[in-house]
């Protein structure tokens, strides 16, 4: 987030003066983010969210398929994955220092 100075002086305001745009200090950004998150969480209507989710589940069961999982780009990306080293056997396969499977 950024800030700028605006004077309360009528002459400065009449001339449209405002100071340089500057970044807020990191700790102030954190406080503002936490305040805004707390505010958003306090205004959530949980009953409405649960009701909408239940309605969506009911509708998708009626249709027999869930359309929200149809994503051509995801399917393409999944097709490009190299899973030749993946295994269901209990051993360790390492790829660039990351353990993919460990028993």
Report a brief summary of the structure:
By secondary structure, this protein is mainly alpha-helical. A hairpin with a 2-residue loop joins strand 3 and strand 4. The C terminus is likely disordered.
Class from helix and strand fractions: mainly alpha
Q: Please report the total strand number as a whole number.
A: 4
> Helical region count?
4
Distance between the termini: 46 Å
Shape: elongated
Q: State the strand order across the main sheet.
A: 1-2
Mean pLDDT: 77
State the major sheet: 2 strands, antiparallel
Low-confidence stretches: 99-103
Considering DSSP H and I runs of 4 or more, what fraction of the residues is helical? 40-55%
Strand content: 5-15%
Domain module tally: 2
Which sequence of SSEs, written as H and E, runs from N to C?
Answer: EHEHHHEE
Radius of gyration: 27 Å
């Amino acid at each position: 987030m950024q800030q700028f100075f605006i004077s309360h002086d009528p002459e400065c305001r009449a001339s449209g003066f405002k100071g340089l745009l500057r970044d807020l200090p990191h700790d102030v950004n954190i406080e503002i983010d936490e305040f805004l998150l707390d505010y958003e969480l306090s205004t959530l209507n949980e009953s409405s969210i649960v009701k909408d989710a239940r309605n969506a589940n009911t509708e998708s069961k009626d249709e027999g398929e869930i359309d929200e999982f149809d994503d051509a780009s995801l399917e393409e990306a999944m097709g490009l994955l190299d899973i030749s080293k993946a295994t269901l056997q209990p051993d360790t396969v390492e790829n660039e220092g990351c353990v993919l499977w460990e028993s």
